[in-house]
Amino acid sequence: MVEIKGAQHVGDELLILADMAQKARVQVVTFVAQVLSKHMDQKRSVQVASVLSEGRWTHDFPITVQAAQGLGLKVSTDMPRSVYELMDLYPQGGGIRPSVWYVPLKRMPGPSAAPAPRPENKGAASGS
Predict the structure, then answer these.
(1) How does pLDDT run across 25-50, given as a tens digit for each residue?
(2) Which residues contact 50 (CB under 8 A, 6 or more apart)?
(3) How many domains does the chain fold into?
(4) 118 occurs within a structural domain
(5) pLDDT given at position 92
(6) Which of 26, 49, 72, 101 is placed for a possible disulfide with 32 were both Cys, Cβ 3.0 to 4.6 Å?
């Protein structure tokens, strides 16, 4: 948003968050490139690290074997039976569900963006 609107048109909090996000991304690229450099040349490791961390996918998007191989990563689907047996001990939730839900909120006109106060719970114990 800072690049789109310009620094003079966003609040201080957004500027701080954008700065932190940029630093975090550089840290991730640096670390991933360092790990990959043990398996490929330096230039290619930086390229792959950039692709993996540039925000192309959400954090929970599965990278397929074919996509990983297309990036030059050495991957294998050969796994010992003991790994599957271990995974069976920890079943995952069923069904496909979106990781990000969009819930549109009705905007109310007025100067305050604060949420409405929560109603009192008349049945709750007051502690006195």
Answers:
(1) 999 999 999 999 999 999 999 999 99
(2) 29
(3) 1
(4) no
(5) 78
(6) 49
The string of pLDDT tens digits covering residues 94-119 is: 666 666 666 667 766 665 555 556 65
Q: What is the pTM of this model?
A: 0.57
Name the strand (E) or helix (H) holding 17. Answer: helix 12-36
Q: What angle separates helix 12-36 from helix 42-53, to the nearest 10 degrees?
A: 140
Q: How far apart are CA 35 and CA 42, in angstroms?
A: 10
Return all residues near 53 (Cβ < 8 A) that are at least 6 apart: 25, 28, 29, 32
From the number of C-beta atoms within 10 Å of its C-beta (0-12, 13-18, 19+), residue 49 rates as buried
Residue 81 within a domain: no
| Burial class of residue 50 (count of CB atoms within 10 Å of its CB; 0-12, 13-18, 19+) | middle
Name the residue range of residue 43's domain.
2-61
Could you tell me the end-to-end alpha-carbon distance of the chain, in angstroms, rounded to an integer? 49
Tell me, what's the pLDDT at 70? 93
Cβ atoms 45, 37 nearer than 8 A: yes
